[in-house]
Amino acid sequence: MISSKAIASIVSKKARLALGLGAAATTVYSSVLVDQFHGTLPESVGEGTHFLIPWVQKPYILDVRARTHTLSAIFATDDHEPVNLTLRVISRPDVQCLPTIVQNLGLDS
């Protein structure tokens, strides 16, 4: 029989490996290319070395990491007791939709 300590060790090692692989696969920055002649190009460009035409193409580098947004509100119950309600939302933009987001909402959103 395998002891519970051995099982916990195996699960811990597999979890660390999965976490490491997940962290290595995520990108932090992605960019949208804007061309002077064609406008916003339909594909976003990930991290790495890319060739641009100077004075014609300009990259807008965007942060695509997950961000937290916290919304807080205070409500009153029927007997007038205050209730604090906090909602935490974690979101990140879809990398394939970045050109559409930049075209419709701009860079500040």
Automatic annotation (TrEMBL):
One of its GO terms (cellular component) is mitochondrial inner membrane. It holds the Pfam family Band_7. It comes from the Eukaryota. InterPro entries: Band_7, Prohibitin. Residues 38-105 form the Band domain. The keyword Mitochondrion applies. It is a single-pass type II membrane protein. Belongs to the prohibitin family. This is Prohibitin.
